[in-house]
What we know:
By secondary structure, the chain is an alpha+beta fold. The chain has three helices and four strands.
Amino acid sequence: MEETKNVVLCAASAYEEKYYLNPGFKALPENIKKELQILCVLYTHKVGGILLLEFDEGGSLIFRTEAKENDFAYDEVGSVLEIKSIQREKRELLEELEMFYKVVFLGESYEDA
């Protein structure tokens, strides 16, 4: 079975105190890029660990988290709650990002996305 690869939009790490935006998304407006950076950095500041925002093969945006095995400061329950909060509060932004990805990267028409 062939493994499909998700496309990383952006990521932040509490361990390295770094933020990454995939250069393939440089066409996004500056205010969207800034909002993504704030969202990711605040998440890792509150919860710890690593947060990745990825698009699956269908264009859905996925929140993926990781933590080092011995990271006792990482808040697993807080992580779930924080992601749900982000998905609720930033629903419009996340939907627009999915539409952007479907149109620009998957070649769907605006009406199909």
